[in-house]
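tool_call predict_complex ligand=alpha-D-galactopyranose
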Amino acid sequence: MRGKITADFIARFGGQPLIFRSPGRINILGEHTDYNDGFVLPAAIDKCIYVAISKRADGKVNLYATDFNEGFTTDTGNIRPASLQWPNYILGVVDQLQKHGHTIGGFNLLIDGDIPIGAGLSSSAAVECVVIYALNEIFALGLSRMQMAPLAQKAEHVFAGVNCGIMDQFASLFGKKDHAIKLDCRSMEYEYVPVKHEGYKIILFNSNVKHNLASSEYNTRRSQCESGIAMIKQFHPSVKKLRDVTMNMLHDHVEPVDGLIYKRCRYVVEENERVLGACEDLKKGDIKALGSKMYETHRGLRFDYEVSCKEIDFLVDYTRSNEDVAGARMVGGGFGGCTINFIKDHAVEKLTAGISRDYKKETGLRLTAYEVSLEDGTGPCMTVL
Ligand code: GLA
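tool_result ok
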């Protein structure tokens, strides 16, 4: 990728660029817990967004996306949301940096990558993270990764309109080879948990669907969690987020008032507990125990949080009775994208062939399967591919 992106950049803009990369992420457990001040357990993967970038002497911002075969030009005095979607993940970052008092000069930037879009692997967060990292380097802004993560997250809120939590940007920036990150989204304390999965491969099945209610429903889930908090707060004023809530509080103050809000909140409270258990399973190398938690999580996401969809449910259900699959569940915000599966090495090929065939029969859609490895977070790109 480094060789190709450099050549593409030189052909388009001239000059010698610097190259940076930022990975997509999976999440082992802890879905929709981040914006509830809870715990998550994501990991960066071997699929990345790459940028080639160089400074300009003037204030022009020239962008080019190889994937879309499309350019976009503006200048640093005129950063606002564009009608095209992809430049917004870049411009949103420039906007945040400017709002935080950083001077950003003009630049040429070419973007490319191999994270499938809309697959729940956070390609948008990877764009934000690689851009903030690259701008931090070329304009010597002196930001730490811990400072970059919330700015990249805010860029998504303001320029993409999704009120996402911190998980995706954090995972992309802080990933570590062969490790997941146990992140406390309240204190921002984190711990690297080794993911030893001898005998199993981590396989993603991409449903290749992304239902367009994803972002509106995401924002709705956030406000449903807030509604639950408001009901409890009247009786427990110290409660700030679902992180502080117990099952008893939900039984006493939410269940009698609103059954739907109760289901949403119950899922989050249970999921937080599951993440802590999953970390213990990983430390013990107990992939079976981890896997059954993944199935429980999927159940919660499907029936209580209601962010799954029939294509994804088909893929998870398909694996349930297969004893070579330790666990499977949807990954990311929901309404399509990928399932994550821990599958015995020897069974991957046969299962992939079977599930692809039957998924096609069931939905008419093509399934894509990827084996993923866990990799380091955002940084300069050294390898020439
Ligand atoms: C999206 C958001 C994250 C997180 C997940 C669900 O990926 O960007 O912040 O909320 O959904 O766990």
